[in-house]
Design brief:
The protein is mainly alpha-helical. About 75% of the residues lie in helices and about 0% in strands.
C-alpha cells in the first residue's frame, strides 16, 4: 500500500479502497458483500469524525482570524520560553486529552500548534508531535475514555487506582514519545511543499489588537468542560432526571463542539468587529482543505471494517492466543494485533479485554489495573494506515505517507512499547 501511494503517486483514497476490495476477495469474502462492508466501515467512522473535523476546523479558523491563537501562543511562549514550547504543548495535550477523544483534542489544539510554531520559529513537528503523543496516551491509558472504561469493567479494576497508575506511567511515556522523540524527528523529517491547512490558520501578521487570554481559553476549552460535565453526570445524577438528560446531551462530542463553535462566532467574531458575512466566509473557506482528510479517514474506516468482516483479524488473533506468554504480554499482543488489523484503538482495547478477562478471572498475582494499562498501550501500536488518526495527522501536518510512518507510526509504537515495559516493571511491585 505504501509503495502504491509513495512510489507510483496514486491517490491514497483510491489505494485504500482498491486494497480493501482485493484483500476481501482474496480472503474469500462474497463479492456481493465486499463493497457494503467497506461502505459500512467508512460511514461509521465519518459519522463521528467528519462532524468533529468540520466543527473543529471552524472553531480553529475563528481562533486564528481573531488573533486568539496568537494570544495563547504569546502567553505560552512567555511562560515556557521559546525553547520549551514542545513541553508546554505536551502538558496542554495531557490536560485537554483527559476528557475528550483524540480526534476532538487534535482539531481543538492543532490551530494553536500552527500559530505557536510560526510565532516562535519552531519546526511544526517539534510542537505538534508532543501534543499528539499526550492526546494518544490519555485516550488509551486513562479513564474516563470509553475504551479504558470498557477494559476497566471487563477486568474488574479499581478506577481510582487505574487513573493513578495511568498518570504515573503515562507521564514519563509522554515525555519520551513527546518532546524527546519530537525533537529527534523534527531534526530529520521536514514537510515538503506548502501546507494549505497551516496557511489558513497562520496569518502573515497577527492582528494589532488581540482578544483577552481568559475569554480565548474559555472558548476553546468550552467543549472540554461540557464533555467533562456530561461524563461526570453519569455517576452523580440519576439518568431519568431532566438535569441529567441535559448534561448528557450538551456533553455529547458533536453538541459540545457545535455550541463552542457558535460561541466563537460571537466572542471571537462579532465581538471582535467581524460582520456576519465575514464569519460565513471564514467558515466556508476553512472546510475546503479538509475534504481529502475526510475521504481518507472514511477510507481508513472502510479498510478496517473489511479486515474484520473478511475474518483476517480473527485469524491473526487466534494465532496470538496460541502463544504461551505472560498475561500482561498476551493482553498487549492481542490489543496490538487488533489495532493493526482494524485500525481502531477503541475496538482493539475492547476486543482484547473481552478475550483476556475470563483468563484473568482464573489467574492470580496479576493486577487488573495494570491489565487495563498494558491493554491500552497495545491498542495504539504502530498507528497504522487504516486508522483515522494516521490520515488526519498526515494531512494536517503536510507530511508524505513515508514521513508519517517515520514520525507518527514510530511515535505510537514507542508509546505502546514503553507502556508494556513500564507495566511489566510495575508488576514486580503491584499484584
Amino acid at each position: 500500500m505504501n509503495s502504491l501511494i509513495a512510489r507510483f503517486r496514486i491517490n491514497p483514497f483510491i489505494v485504500l479502497f482498491s486494497v480493501s476490495i482485493l484483500l476481501a476477495l482474496v480472503a474469500g469474502m462474497p463479492a456481493d458483500k465486499v463493497v457494503g462492508s467497506f461502505e459500512a466501515g467508512a460511514g461509521h467512522v465519518l459519522g463521528h469524525v467528519g462532524t468533529v473535523i468540520a466543527l473543529g476546523t471552524m472553531l480553529g479558523k475563528m481562533l486564528a482570524e481573531s488573533g486568539g491563537a496568537d494570544r495563547i501562543a504569546l502567553t505560552i511562549s512567555n511562560i515556557s520560553g521559546r525553547r520549551h514550547v514542545d513541553w508546554a504543548m505536551m502538558l496542554i495535550g495531557l490536560l485537554v486529552g483527559l476528557p475528550v477523544f483524540f480526534e476532538v483534542g487534535f482539531v481543538l489544539l492543532i490551530p494553536l500548534a500552527f500559530v505557536l510554531a510560526d510565532r516562535t520559529d519552531t519546526p511544526l513537528l517539534r510542537v505538534a508531535l508532543p501534543m499528539g503523543a499526550a492526546l494518544s496516551i490519555t485516550h488509551a491509558l486513562i479513564p474516563p475514555h470509553p475504551a479504558a472504561l470498557l477494559a476497566l469493567s471487563a477486568y474488574h479494576a479499581n478506577i481510582g487506582l487505574t487513573i493513578l497508575l495511568g498518570v504515573l506511567i503515562g507521564t514519563p511515556i509522554a515525555v519520551i514519545a513527546g518532546p524527546l522523540f519530537g525533537r529527534f524527528a523534527a531534526a530529520r523529517v521536514v514537510p515538503i511543499g506548502v501546507n494549505p491547512l497551516a496557511q489558513q490558520f497562520v496569518n502573515s501578521e497577527p492582528p494589532a489588537s488581540l482578544p483577552g487570554f481568559g475569554i480565548t481559553v474559555f472558548t476553546i476549552l468550552s467543549p472540554v468542560f461540557l464533555m467533562l460535565a456530561g461524563s461526570m453526570s453519569q455517576g452523580i445524577i440519576a439518568p431519568d432526571t431532566t438535569l441529567g438528560a441535559i448534561l448528557r446531551f450538551v456533553g455529547n462530542t458533536d453538541i459540545a463542539l457545535l455550541l463552542a463553535t457558535v460561541l466563537s462566532f460571537y466572542v471571537l467574531g462579532q465581538a471582535r468587529g467581524f460582520s456576519r458575512e465575514t464569519i460565513l466566509r471564514f467558515t466556508n473557506e476553512c472546510l475546503g482543505p479538509t475534504a481529502l482528510i475526510m475521504l481518507l479517514v472514511g477510507a481508513g474506516g472502510g479498510f478496517g471494517r473489511v479486515l474484520v468482516d473478511s475474518g483476517v483479524s480473527k485469524s491473526i488473533t487466534d494465532a496470538a492466543l496460541g502463544a504461551h506468554v505472560p498475561l500482561l504480554v498476551l493482553a498487549w499482543m492481542l490489543a496490538a494485533i487488533v489495532r493493526v488489523a482494524c485500525g481502531s484503538s477503541t475496538v482493539a482495547m475492547a476486543t482484547a479485554s473481552g478475550i483476556v478477562a475470563p483468563i484473568l478471572a482464573r489467574s492470580t498475582g496479576v493486577s487488573p489495573e495494570l491489565m487495563v494499562l498494558v491493554t491500552g498501550a497495545g491498542s495504539v501500536t504502530f498507528g497504522p494506515m487504516n486508522d483515522a488518526g494516521f490520515w488526519q495527522l498526515k494531512e494536517y501536518l503536510g507530511l508524505t505517507v513515508p514521513q508519517t510512518l517515520k514520525t507518527w507510526s514510530v511515535l505510537e509504537t514507542l508509546i505502546a512499547v514503553c507502556g508494556l515495559v513500564f507495566g511489566l516493571i510495575a508488576s514486580i511491585f503491584i499484584h
